[in-house]
Amino acid sequence: MTVPARTQVAIIGAGPAGLLLGQLLQLRGIDTVILEAKSPDYVLGRIRAGVLEEITVRKLREAGCGDRLAREGLVHHGTGIAFGGSLHRIDIQGLTCGKVVTVYGQTEVTRDLMHARESIGAQTVYEAQDVQLHDLTGTTPSVSWGTRHTLHCDFIAGCDGFHGVSRASIPKDSIRSFERVYPFGWLGVMADVPSLPELVYAHHERGFALCSLRSPTRSRYYVQVPLTDTVDQWSDARFWDELLQRVDPLTASRIVTGPSIEKSIAPLRSFVAEPLRYHRLFLAGDAAHIVPPTGAKGLNLAASDVHYLSEGFISHYRERCDLALDGYSQRALARIWKAERFSWWMTQLLHTFPDQDSFAPRLQQAELQYLISSETAQRLLAENYVGLPT
Ligand code: RFL
Ligand code: PHB
User: Fold this and answer.
1) Alpha-carbon distance 132 to 154, whole Å?
2) Could you read off the pLDDT of 289-325 as tens digits, one per residue?
3) CA geometry: angle at 366 spanning 364 and 372, to 5°?
4) Mean pLDDT along residues 267-274
5) Does domain 9-74+103-179+269-345 have CATH number 3.30.9.10?
6) How many A from CA of 22 to the centre of ligand 2?
7) Sequence spans of domains, the chain
């Protein structure tokens, strides 16, 4: 397929943010072209998120990607918190007037969105090298890639993740960033072994651990590791041994171990760029913000950004009204900062921090005790975990 010379919204990045935005706009008659640096297989090979809020599920349905999600997504009504040798259940559904989360891998979300885009004949350019953004301050911005491709457009949506070109194209004095880097990472392991019925977030003096899943027969586990660790230092045997030490005995007795099919280490970071707009360029998803994965918010925030941004583009083109587009940054940032707060809070509650004073672990214990003894404290967690209203 030859790439047109012009589109209405050029989208940089075919991750969940870019693909979802593309789908919501195309279905409302707004033309988009997506430029993605990597190949489809590479994009689908990245193993990341697993827990979807209701708003994300709703948006995926709106995007025409609800069928497989309804069939294969696992609805979870509660989640476990383990510490001090015991497992405590947070009744997410009971504490939030019936709200739930859905376990469905980011890989599957991306695959469904790719198929949906293909089936409506919308264009994605994969392996677009050296993407550059031009004339952002005028009325006719453009995007170039390779040696001789240029795409003119009305707007550019920067959905190209934390290391993308979009945020980097904004002059330094027009954007501010706020950042916190954590002194540890997560080692994640995927294994085709029977999974636990609910997630378990575990705090232990050896470090944090998380039991998650992709399906009843595919498990996803994480342990907190020092930033200096590499995957080669973690044989499967060492990983399972460490995981079983960090969770409570009941959970440990239920975990089925087996050979890993994927293993990777991710650093943890909190980051927000403000504002999310520079003239004709709008940032969404990880291009604009990063949360540590502890609260399961990254993909969900990408979906809520896209919800606000798609409303802005739709009223621009269909009603000739720019109020929503002009308000995008402020509206999205209000929700982003609440998710940043929750993700930071979950991270500091559950991890062990090297080099902290003797006061901090006592505070952490007090907060964990308070959480399991107070319905009010559990409600706060549950309300944030299922996702705050948009
Ligand atoms: P993505 O997924 O990074 O996609 C960006 C896309 O842009 C492309 N790109 C470029 N394209 C063209 N030109 C360039 N110069 C480009 N530079 C980059 C990239 O190739 C890529 O395809 O960002 P997006 O779409 O904003 O989506 C964000 C989510 O991927 C991310 O927030 C989540 O994965 C975070 N996350 C979780 N989120 C949740 O909501 N629930 C979870 O349970 C959850 N678990 C996780 C996570 C992230 C993790 N890691 C590895 C950081 C667990 C982990 C371990
Ligand atoms: C995952 O399944 O990958 C996952 C689940 C919950 C989190 C983070 C990651 O908080």
Assistant:
1) 16
2) 999 999 999 999 999 999 999 999 999 999 999 999 9
3) 105
4) 98
5) no
6) 25
7) 9-74+103-179+269-345, 182-268+353-386
pLDDT for residue 90: 98
The order of strands in the sheet holding 74-76 is: 51-52, 101-103, 74-76
Q: What is the CATH number of domain 182-268+353-386?
A: 3.30.9.10
pLDDT exceeds cutoff 90 at 119:
yes
Q: Which two tokens stand for residue 122?
A: 């919308």
Judge whether 309 and 284 are in contact, CB under 8 Å: yes
294 lines ligand 2 (CB under 6 A): yes
Whether the model pTM is above 0.90: yes
Name the residue with the closest Cα to ligand 2, atom 7.
296
List Cα–Cα distances, 47 to 27, 29, 109, 110, 147, in angstroms.
28, 32, 11, 11, 31
**What pLDDT does residue 376 have?**
98
Residue 232 confidence (pLDDT) above 90: yes
In the predicted model, is pLDDT for residue 1 greater than 90? no
Q: Which two tokens stand for residue 114?
A: 């790719």
- d(CA 264, ligand 1 centre) in Å: 15
